[in-house]
Specification:
The chain is α+β, with helices and mostly antiparallel strands. The protein has one domain. Helix content is 47%, strand content 19%. The protein has two helices and two strands, in the order βαβα. It has a two-stranded parallel sheet. The longest helix has 10 residues. The mean pLDDT is 81.
Length: 43
């Protein structure tokens, strides 16, 4: 069953990208807050 998952973690957390990748590989829709924060810092 596909789920919508919100991953809330510091962009400094070294395990965060692996968690997001694993969830996406399992077929879930994942909203990655670290990517949003990095984009906001670049603006």
């Amino acid at each position: 069953m596909q789920r919508k998952i919100y991953v809330a973690s510091s962009w400094r957390n070294p395990a965060q990208p692996e968690v997001v990748s694993a969830l996406r590989s399992a077929g879930h829709l994942v909203y990655d807050t670290a990517i949003v924060r990095i984009a906001e810092q670049d603006a």
